[in-house]
Design a protein that fits this description.
The chain is of the alpha/beta class and 334 residues long. The protein folds into 2 domains: 10-230, P-loop containing nucleotide triphosphate hydrolases (Rossmann fold, 3-Layer(aba) Sandwich), CATH 3.40.50; 237-329, no CATH class. 39% of the residues lie in helices and 17% in strands. The chain is built from 13 helices and 13 strands. The protein has helices at residues 29-41, 55-66, 90-98, 115-120, 122-131, 153-159, 175-179, 181-186, 220-224, 237-246, 267-283, 293-306, 311-326; strands at residues 10-14, 23-27, 45-48, 69-74, 86-88, 111-113, 142-144, 150-152, 162-167, 188-191, 197-200, 207-212, 227-230. It has a 5-stranded parallel β-sheet. The protein has a two-stranded antiparallel ribbon with strand order 1-2. A hairpin with a 5-residue loop joins β10 and β11. α12 runs antiparallel to α13 (311-326). The longest helix is centred in the C-terminal third of the chain and has 17 residues, at 267-283. The radius of gyration is 23 Å and the shape is elongated. Residues 41-233 form the AAA+ ATPase domain. InterPro entries: AAA+_ATPase, AAA_16, P-loop_NTPase. This is AAA+ ATPase domain-containing protein. Pfam families: AAA_16.
């Protein structure tokens, strides 16, 4: 089989949004191709992989890639299918009814758009809140880039559309993904308690990225409606780690990277931290948890905070604290 020609890797700056801190992400050619096909086909992209391989931030990188608004929902075992579409504030309605408020007679005053509604029709969600005088939390309104320039999520949503991240969908039972089949197929849904009000994509279909840690098998019918991107390390795991660390930390010996806003970290330190991780993984064969990208980046982030721009001190800290980041299994406890 001939080698597949893919786009060159691109590093994207990820602005802080909600509880997500600012970061950087290396989007390789394979991931770029999968994202572009998902956008072109209108199908969700299901990203499979172990925890800590960068699945969630891939969605943020996709939003930067297309200059779209970023909407997200972290799925839990308590997540209800309806909450992804719309949310009903029964407590507020009960309080208004007890106070004999006239608005309590109309349930529309207590329905707030959920993440799928916002991503499918942001303008319509804003209009719903205004017309029905609903007091509800909106998706994070602003994104601030490295230069301090602020962009409005609403403007991005209305001109380019949204990227919706449904994170860790395998945490919920099969009822939740099964309930999304019609919504994903039609890019829309109806509100059964509001005279059949329809939510439909007016201009741009959302790019939906769904992640799974494989903790629970997903329904076959749901998977069939998705494109699937298995996100795993390359054969040379050590170099794969280092390449992704370079998206977060510039090389102090590379003058072309000076002034790009990223903290510096020496190549030798990245290599030594990666080698220590590889050594621990070798000792952990057969164990349930192996240190990976998440642990590697946690360690580097700590070294940068403990001794910024001081390679000698970072080296000393590496020897002292490495075990706390990597040795999470009882088999490797000191």
């Amino acid at each position: 089989m001939t080698d597949i020609k893919r786009p060159d890797p691109v590093t994207y700056y990820l602005p802080a949004v909600g509880t997500w801190p600012e970061s950087h992400y290396l989007l390789d050619g394979r991931c770029q191709d999968a994202i572009r096909l998902a956008e072109a086909s209108g199908r969700p992209l299901l990203v499979r992989g172990l925890p800590g391989t960068g699945k969630s931030d891939l969605a943020r990188a996709a939003a930067q890639m297309f200059e779209r608004a970023f909407v997200y929902e972290v799925v839990t075992a308590r997540s209800e299918p309806q909450e992804l579409l719309w949310r009903f504030d029964a407590v507020a309605r009960l309080a208004d009814a007890q106070a004999q408020e006239p608005r309590a007679k109309d349930v529309s005053h207590y329905i707030a758009p959920g993440p799928l509604w916002w991503s499918i029709d942001w303008r319509g969600a804003e209009q719903w809140l205004r017309e029905h005088e609903v007091h509800a939390q909106r998706p994070d309104a602003e994104l601030t880039d490295q230069s301090g320039q602020v962009s409005q999520q609403a403007q991005r949503a209305q001109t380019k559309g949204c990227v919706l991240l449904l994170d860790e969908i395998d945490k919920a039972d099969s009822e939740l993904p099964n309930s999304l089949l019609e919504v994903l197929a039609n890019s829309g849904f109806r509100l059964p308690c509001a005279d059949g009000y329809e939510v439909k994509a007016r201009q741009h279909k959302p790019l939906i990225i769904i992640t799974t840690n494989e903790d629970r098998e997903l329904p076959a019918a749901f998977v069939r409606r998705c494109l699937v991107l298995p996100l795993a390390a390359d054969a040379d795991f050590k170099q794969w780690l280092i390449a992704r660390a370079r998206s977060h930390y510039r090389d102090p010996d590379d003058t072309s990277q000076a002034g790009d806003g990223r903290p510096a970290m020496a190549q030798t330190l990245l290599e030594q931290a990666a080698q220590r991780l590889m050594d621990d993984r070798a000792q952990l064969r057969g164990e349930a948890h192996l240190p990976g990208l998440a642990e590697y980046l946690d360690l580097l982030r700590g070294l940068d905070s403990l001794a910024r721009n001081d390679p000698a001190q970072q080296q000393q800290w590496l020897d002292r604290v490495c075990d706390f980041a990597y040795r999470k299994s009882a088999s490797l406890s000191a």
